[in-house]
């Protein structure tokens, strides 16, 4: 199917297509369809969409404790007294928190690293929220840390580093089981597989 060249119609429409096409998973063809859809919508709906985008950029920040996304100082998970305060699941991104929550099988707390160790990309321990995790463990109230980094080379490297870093604090460290396919990312795994991986995690220390 031929892709419509919207630049022939309007420079502003072309700019919108270019911006949309930068979103993950959207090529120019899909971006053009979305741009034309927005153009057909009432002006008020377009303004609401634009405002919603601005709101998430201005209102959402990182939780003071776990670095998950929140509009408050402390996120809803860290402030929930019903969750297991002695169990921390370490993930790479806030998106991983959402995926794990959808399984309904984890009732502990989270810690978001903000990525993984990656020597090729010059990402070291100081670039991640590893020091903040160690501070949480130092208090002695944490019983177990579950490492739920992705089963990739960088994810495994990060998990091994965390295992060594946490060893001296006497906390149990486990890794989610290989129910998650090697090379896959958590956001791509279905909830059943993810729940199974959490339940069958293996003890590392």
Radius of gyration: 21 Å
Class inferred from helices and paired strands: alpha/beta
Distance between the termini: 56 Å
What is the percentage of strand-forming residues? 5-15%
Mean pLDDT: 90
Task: Kindly state the number of beta strands.
Answer: 7
Tell me which CATH architecture of the largest domain applies here. 3-Layer(aba) Sandwich
In spatial order, strands of the major sheet run: 4-3-5-6-7
Query: In DSSP terms, counting alpha (H) and pi (I) runs of 4 or more, how many helices?
Result: 7
Kindly state the percentage of residues in helix.
Answer: 40-55%
The low-pLDDT segments are none
Q: How would you sum up this structure in a few lines?
A:
The chain is of the alpha/beta class. It has two domains: 6-47, RecR Domain 1 (Helicase, Ruva Protein, domain 3); 83-203, Dna Topoisomerase Vi A Subunit, Chain: A, domain 2. The protein is 40% helix and 13% strand.
Describe this structure in words.
The protein is an alpha/beta fold and 205 residues long. The chain has two domains: 42 residues, Helicase, Ruva Protein, domain 3 (Orthogonal Bundle); 121 residues, Dna Topoisomerase Vi A Subunit, Chain: A, domain 2 (3-Layer(aba) Sandwich). Helices cover 40% and strands 13% of the residues. Strands 4-3-5-6-7 form a five-stranded mixed sheet. Strands 1-2 form a two-stranded antiparallel sheet. A hairpin with a 6-residue loop joins strand 1 and strand 2. Helix 1 packs across helix 2 and helix 4 crosses helix 7. The termini are far apart. 26% of the residues are buried. The model has no long low-confidence stretch (mean pLDDT 90).
């Amino acid at each position: 199917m031929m892709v419509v060249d919207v630049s022939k119609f309007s420079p502003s429409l072309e700019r919108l297509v270019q911006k949309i096409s930068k979103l993950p998973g959207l090529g120019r063809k899909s971006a053009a369809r979305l741009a034309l859809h927005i153009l057909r919508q009432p002006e008020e709906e377009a303004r609401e969409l634009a405002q919603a985008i601005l709101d998430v950029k201005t209102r959402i920040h990182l939780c003071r404790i776990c670095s998950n996304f929140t509009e408050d100082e402390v996120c809803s998970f860290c402030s929930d007294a019903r969750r297991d305060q002695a169990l921390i699941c370490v993930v790479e991104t806030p998106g991983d928190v959402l995926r794990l929550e959808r399984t309904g099988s984890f009732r502990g707390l989270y810690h978001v690293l903000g990525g993984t160790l990656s020597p090729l990309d010059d990402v070291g321990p100081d670039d991640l929220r590893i020091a903040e995790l160690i501070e949480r463990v130092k208090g002695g109230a944490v019983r177990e840390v579950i490492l739920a980094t992705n089963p990739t080379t960088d994810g495994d490297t990060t998990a091994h580093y965390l295992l060594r870093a946490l060893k001296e604090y006497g906390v149990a460290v486990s890794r989610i089981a290989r129910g998650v396919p090697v090379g896959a990312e958590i956001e791509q795994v279905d909830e059943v597989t993810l729940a199974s991986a959490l339940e069958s995690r293996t003890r590392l220390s």
